[in-house]
Specification:
Layout (H helix, E strand, L loop, with lengths): L1 H28 L3 E7 L4 H18 L3 E7 L4 H13 L4 E5 L1 H10 L5 E6 L2 H5 L12 E5 L4 H11 L5 E7 L3 H16 L3 E7 L5 H9 L4 E4 L3 H4 L2 H8 L6 E3 L2 H7 L2 E4 L2 H16 L11 E2 L4 E4 L1 H7 L8 E2 L3
Parallel strand pairs: 1-2, 1-3, 3-4, 4-5, 5-11, 6-7, 6-8, 8-9, 9-10, 12-13
Antiparallel strand pairs: 10-12
Helix pairs in contact: 2-12, 3-4, 6-7, 8-10, 10-11
Length: 322
Amino acid sequence: MKKRLFALAMAAVMALSLTGCGSASGSSANKTYTIGICQFVQHVALDAATQGFKDALVAEFGENVKFDEQNAAGDAATATMICTNLVAENVDLILANATPSLQSAAAATSDIPVLGTAITEYGVALGIDNFSGVVGNNVSGTSDLPPLDQQARMVEEIFPDAKTVGILYCSAEANSSYQAKVVKDTLEGDGLTVQIYTFADSNDIASVTAEACANVDVLYIPTDNTAASCVEAINNVALPAKTPIIAGEEGILAGCGVATLSIDYYGLGYTTGEMAAKVLKGEEKISEMAIQYYPDPVKEYNPAICDELGVTIPEGYVAYEG
């Protein structure tokens, strides 16, 4: 009789144990994730990257993913405040869209996973010497760095008679400075004269652009967030001055550029979202994730501005359609 009672008791314990396991599994499957998003400024490229990121996570988790999406409106102090608040809310993961957002998020937490997107060079952004491609802590993400030497040589390809090239960017953006140096070295190595023009913020962008247009044959603007958010102001100066612009990315191309060798920012954001899903599901450790790059940049031109300036584009370029 005692053996029978003991067997019944054990069966009951096992049943409860199995029920508990089933309940835990169901809870994990139905977990809701809260993702914080700090986008540094609103412009076409960054908007597309954020949308791609969100779409990838919705495709993976459906209604079980929620977004706390905020925009710093181009202000570094605001980006810091946003990231500090997201950490206080204990979100499951932070998307840092653009370099100042990444710097703010990395400074705000060493525990919550942080994925960057539209970051040109992580070593430069985070002050890592001899960067190997893996940050190695709670940070990883995707880069929007195009082949800068190929971008630089578009100047010579489209404007073979150009002698002087101006590089225009915001002095507050470390990654813009990095791109400017690479492009400058490439063009000077090919025998062109390069002049650097920097603006502190949107307030002096028109005057600096005017100075550049008065002294150069062609302008180059890297993937600079402040410039991208002020393309109308740049175009209002450069177009009447008949100064063509080679753009670092599609958003600048759309607003004031002649041509670009650009990546697909929506695709870049989508890849970042896929990385986020792997981190959230525990399939990969963010500390071991290598920075990913967009594999197939495309040569594009802006038909409207090319027509306005009388620029003939060589074969191999596709029209930017927006």
